[in-house]
């Protein structure tokens, strides 16, 4: 197998453009401390990350998940606050939901179980729903939580498999496949 057959990839929930634009309006108002904001087109909720995975293995994983995920009904995620992530002492800034839905928990479980069946390395980190928005540039700066109940919810009817790669010295996410929930 060639090295080109191995990629960096992740399953995620895409953030719709309309919600990303609302997030951009909010983050423009945050100017009390220096923050490097992630580009809007890269905003997503990571469900499972793969540092170094073969394309054939990803294809098998997608096939395994299609049937299991197809019985889950579409759902929404209401975002509630922008805060340091994963704790108040962190330098990452993330947007977190009001609560994790049962459907989201089921999807994460299906991904984990499918990975286990196909003998993927275990993902050691427990899942915690969030959108990474940026990074505080000066680590001694404090960031106060901002409540965001006015944002539109993210409607989820599919999950996306992305290829993460460097292009022209920038991180780029390319869609490899979308796996749809029960849309009947």
N- and C-termini, Cα separation:
40 Å
Which sheet architecture does the biggest sheet show?
5 strands, antiparallel
How many separate helices? 3
Q: What is the beta-strand fraction?
A: 35-45%
Tell me the overall shape: globular
Percent helix: 10-25%
Biggest sheet, spatial arrangement of strands? 2-7-6-5-8
| Low-pLDDT stretches | none
Arithmetic mean pLDDT: 90
Number of strands: 11
- Secondary-structure element series: EHEEHEEEHEEEEE
Find the structural class using helix and strand composition.
alpha+beta
Q: From the alpha carbons, calculate the radius of gyration and give it in angstroms.
A: 17 Å
Fold blueprint:
Elements: E1 6-14, H1 17-28, E2 35-37, E3 44-54, H2 55-69, E4 75-77, E5 79-85, E6 92-97, H3 102-117, E7 131-136, E8 146-147, E9 154-156, E10 158-167, E11 170-180
Antiparallel strand pairs: 1-3, 1-10, 2-7, 4-9, 5-6, 5-8, 6-7, 10-11
Helix pairs in contact: 2-3
